Amino acid sequence: MHCPGFRLLHACAAAVVAITGMLPGNAVSATSAPASIRLSQAQMGAAAIKVVVARAADDADAVPSTGGWRLTGTVTVPPNDTGVILSAVSGQIERVFVHIGQTIRAGDRLARIYSGDVLSMQRNYLHARSNAEVVSNRLTRDKTLFREGIIAEARLRETEAAQDMAVATQREQRRLLRLVGYSDAEINSLKPDSIAAWVTLRADNNAVVLEQPAQVGQHIEAGAPLFKLATRGKWWLELEATRAQAADIQLGDRTQVEGCSSEGHVIAVGSQLQIATQTLTIRAQMPEGLSCITPNQFIQAQVLPSTTRAMGLVTVPASALVRNGGGDFVFVEKSGDFQPTPVSIARRRGSELLLSAGIKPGTRIASSGLMALKGAWLGLGAQSASAGAH
User: Fold this and answer.
1) Would the CA dihedral through 227, 233, 238, 239 be positive or negative?
2) Quick check: helix, strand or coil at residue 237?
3) What distance in Å separates the CA atoms of residue 345 and residue 51, rounded to the nearest whole number?
4) How would you class 122 by CB atoms within 10 Å of its CB: exposed for 0-12, middle for 13-18, buried for 19 or more?
5) Distance (Å, rounded) from C-alpha 47 to C-alpha 366?
6) For the chain, does the N or the C end have fewer beta carbons within 10 angstroms?
7) d(C-alpha 233, C-alpha 77), whole Å
8) d(C-alpha 79, C-alpha 223), whole Å
């Protein structure tokens, strides 16, 4: 049966057997110390092994430039730092006191709403407050009468229960008014001749206005969103970077925005390309409470190394790397011998690796055909070679 689909697999297997046939049966294993693999030119050709020379990484490889990468992007708000102001009553928006992008403080006015529901709430609260005062006076009188033996204890207990119910009702009506937007001072000063059909909404915290869905004159229902706010926390920078730039950016790298005295730091490096721009997203977090930037603002930022990155690095092709037992290795070639050598990776940059330890500039290493070399290193075909020697 003719199986052309297996030609490549067969060739690789043949190359592994051809190489490992030169090794002693117990020379290599996944756990033993790395063994030297000796190959002839014919064997190297059969395994498609190519050798390159590792070069010293210059300063431009270690640090992109003295100014770092200059990237463009926008200021965004972390999802857990946003909130929505909802209307607790139905009515009509009479006035708006803030605008999108404005910085507000706790207690600042946001909007004023005309609502018939507010009239009912105020009347209910005044009635509950008045009833609580009446029951409180009755309880004081009944306590005196009970001490004097004029009324029975059951009468006193009924009045105490009525007092508890009156106080609970007053507190409930008070909470409803606070939910609508009334402050404690406004509720305390409320009188029968001062009730009105308007309520003013105020900010609970310092924030920035992100959105204003409702407009002046619009009729709204209870639960309708009026404002979307961002608490003045740690803004995010969503920066756009090319694949080459993103490969050189690390978590913790510093970010600087013109006009801001404080630096941020990179908290995420995206791995998925944006279809429209073919860029990756670099997310940086800025310090809390900055006034030099605002959400949705377009900015330019410099991304700088968090520390002085190591000099004296060695550049090798990424294809030269093999992994074994959780470690990184390259095959160093000397006069036809290939020695698996552990290395330390400082950074990845596109199709290249920058190594901080393991080999020196000028070292000859295998950059292709590693399947055959690794197979020989792990002892694949060693038993067959040993058996053929008997």
Assistant:
1) positive
2) strand
3) 20
4) buried
5) 11
6) N
7) 8
8) 21
Cα(56)–Cα(53) distance, integer angstroms: 10
d(CA 185, CA 261): 40
Domains defined for the chain, CATH in brackets: 1-33+374-390 (no CATH), 50-62+311-368 (2.40.420.20), 69-79+232-304 (2.40.30.170), 81-230 (2.40.50.100)
Q: At 216, which amino acid appears? A: V
Per-residue model confidence as pLDDT tens digits over 252-279: 888 999 888 889 999 999 888 888 888 9
AA identity, residue 43: Q
The closest alpha carbon to 353, from 57, 58, 34, 48, belongs to 57
- Residue 156, H or E segment: helix 153-180
Report the residue count for the chain.
Answer: 390
Distance of CA 338 to the CA centre of its chain: 44
Identify the weakest region by mean pLDDT among 25-39, 134-148, 239-253: 25-39
Phi, psi of 337 (to 5 degrees): -95, 135
| pLDDT over 80 (residue 235) | yes
Residues 235, 77: contact at Cβ < 8 Å? yes
**Which of 48, 370, 55, 78 lies closest to 236, judged by CA?**
78
Q: How far is CA 127 from CA 173, 190, 195, in A?
A: 9, 12, 12
Residue 189: pLDDT above 80?
yes
